[in-house]
């Protein structure tokens, strides 16, 4: 029977109907064929792909299900994606409400040998405030919306990598030592990244950042910053005029110099706020996926996080 490596948290219980189009893709939209003898892994979107590649190394063939340049919040799998899951050894997904399609799809699969890992299992979720999104009901809290972007806290990214490692060990025990060694290497790297953020951000008196999308709750909680979102948890939501006026007044009062937007979402609302107060705009990356260009240029989780750190240092001055 399917082995599911998670305690199904509130966010992992959101279920919607299956629809959509597209085929499993690697970040450069070139596909990733399973190689003989390797663990076959489907990852729900980019950070799960990146973490699975780091843990799996040359013992796993990993496919990123969401194509490069595609915003993953509203993406849904097509028939070809279901076929890929039927033939996979492991399915890695974030949970916490990110993949609204995941549990519905898992219920339809005939692949009883599939090992499923909810990477955010065991992480305490932050409640968000998506005024423009559909309200979901869970068994524990009616109408709750949770921020799924747990990977933006390096310590939670480490927990997600550990959960992925445990699933790989379960699915491929003959290579357990290899997966354990890869995890140990990247756990140390994540500890170092966390130290970099703490040291670099510790002394700024300004702690406020204005972001287009409410995606940075875990990052801000980890390093004592205050996220002020223009839009809610859904990146395609539209702020009403009253909300825009409130954000503009806040930015003027706090002398905010940078308004953040993200690569996969239109910068229009961020530019509107910036124009109103004479501020600059810059990218703060929620690391949901690479852009339409060469994925190799975007780098991996660590390079994206370090670019975020440099952007934060400029904005907080």
In short:
The chain is an alpha/beta fold and 317 residues long. Helices cover 38% and strands 13% of the residues.
Would you kindly provide a written description of the structure presented here, covering whatever features stand out?
The chain is an alpha/beta fold and 317 residues long. It folds into two domains: 3-195, 3-Layer(aba) Sandwich (Rossmann fold), CATH 3.40.50; 202-316, 3-Layer(aba) Sandwich (Rossmann fold). Helices cover 38% and strands 13% of the residues. It has ten helices and eleven strands. The chain has helices spanning 46-56, 79-86, 102-108, 154-171, 176-201, 217-223, 241-253, 268-277, 295-298, 301-316, and strands spanning 3-5, 39-43, 60-64, 90-93, 115-118, 126-127, 146-147, 208-211, 226-229, 258-261, 280-283. Strands 1-5-4-2-3 form a five-stranded parallel beta sheet, covered by helices on one side. Strand 4 (90-93), helix 3 (102-108) and strand 5 form a beta-alpha-beta unit. The longest helix is centred in the middle third of the chain and has 26 residues, at 176-201. It is globular, with a radius of gyration of 19 Å. The termini are far apart. Residues 6-34 and 130-143 have low confidence and may be disordered.
Please describe the structure with a list of short key phrases separated by commas or semicolons.
single chain, 317 residues, alpha/beta, Rossmann fold, 5-stranded parallel beta sheet, 4-stranded parallel beta sheet, 10 helices, 11 strands, globular
Tell me roughly what share of residues is in helical segments. 25-40%
Query: Which CATH architecture of the largest domain?
Result: 3-Layer(aba) Sandwich
> What is the domain total for the residues?
2
| Class derived from helix and strand content | alpha/beta
What is the CATH first-level class name of the largest domain? Alpha Beta
CATH homologous superfamily identity of the largest domain: Nitrogenase molybdenum iron protein domain
Output the number of helix runs. Answer: 10
Poorly predicted runs of 5 or more residues: 6-34, 130-143
Shape: globular
Strand proportion, as a percent range, falls in 5-15%
H/E topology pattern? EEHEHEHEEEHHEHEHEHEHH
Radius of gyration: 19 Å
Reported by name, the CATH topology of the largest domain is: Rossmann fold
With strands numbered from the N-terminus, the spatial order across the biggest sheet is 1-5-4-2-3
For the largest beta-sheet, the strand count, sense and barrel status come to: 5 strands, parallel
Let me know the average pLDDT.
85
Termini separation: 54 Å
How many strand elements? 11
């Amino acid at each position: 029977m399917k082995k599911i490596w998670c305690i199904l948290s509130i966010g992992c219980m959101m279920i919607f109907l299956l629809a959509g189009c597209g085929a499993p893709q690697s970040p450069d939209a070139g596909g990733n064929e399973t190689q003989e003898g390797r663990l076959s892994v489907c990852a729900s979107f980019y950070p799960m792909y990146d973490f699975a590649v780091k843990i799996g190394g040359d013992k796993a063939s990993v496919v990123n299900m969401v194509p490069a340049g595609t915003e993953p919040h509203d993406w849904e799998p097509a028939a070809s994606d279901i076929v890929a899951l039927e033939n996979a050894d492991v399915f890695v997904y974030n949970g916490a409400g990110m993949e609204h399609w995941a549990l519905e799809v898992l219920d339809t699969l005939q692949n009883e040998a599939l090992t499923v890992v909810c990477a955010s299992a065991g992480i305490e979720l932050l409640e968000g405030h998506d005024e423009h999104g559909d309200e979901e009901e869970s068994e524990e809290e009616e109408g709750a919306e949770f921020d799924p972007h747990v990977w933006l806290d390096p310590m939670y990214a480490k927990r997600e990598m550990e959960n992925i490692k445990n699933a790989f060990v379960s699915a491929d025990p003959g290579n357990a030592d290899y997966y354990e060694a890869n995890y140990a290497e990247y756990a140390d790297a994540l500890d170092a990244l966390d130290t970099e953020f703490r040291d670099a951000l510790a002394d700024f008196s300004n702690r406020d950042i204005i972001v287009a999308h409410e995606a940075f709750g875990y990052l801000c909680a980890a390093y004592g910053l205050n996220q002020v979102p223009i839009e809610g948890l859904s990146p395609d939501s539209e702020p009403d005029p009253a909300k825009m006026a409130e954000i503009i007044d806040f930015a003027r009062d706090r002398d905010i110099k940078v308004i953040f937007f993200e690569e996969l979402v239109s910068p229009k609302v961020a530019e509107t706020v910036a124009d109103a107060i004479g501020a600059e705009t810059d990218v703060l990356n929620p690391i949901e996926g690479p852009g339409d260009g060469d994925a190799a240029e975007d780098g991996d989780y660590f390079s994206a996080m370090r670019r975020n750190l440099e952007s934060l240092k400029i904005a907080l001055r």
